[in-house]
Amino acid sequence: MMSRKQRVMRTTTIALLLTCTLAGWWWSKNVNKGTSEAIINEKPVTLKMLAYWEAEVGPVLDEMNQRFQKKYPNIKIDYEYAPVDQYQSLIKTRIASGDAPDLFHVFPGTWKDPFVKAGYLMDLSDRPWVSRLQAGAKDMESINGKVYGLPINQNAIGVIYNRKIFSDLGLTIPKDWNEFLAVCETMKAAHITPLAIGNRDLWVTQIIPFAMAPSAIYRDYPSFDQDMYDGKVTFAKSPWNQMMTDYVDLVERGYFNDGVLSTSFDQMVQLLATGKAGMMVMGNWALPTISAFNPEADMGMFPLPYVKPGEKTYVAVGLSLGLGASATTEHPEEVKKYIDFWAEPENNEMLLKQAQAFPVFTDVHPELNSTLKELTPYMNIGTYHFLDQRWPQGVQDTMFAGIRSVLVDGGQTYPIEKMLKEMDQVFKEKKN
Question: How far apart are CA 305 and CA 178, in angstroms?
Answer without folding.
Answer: 9
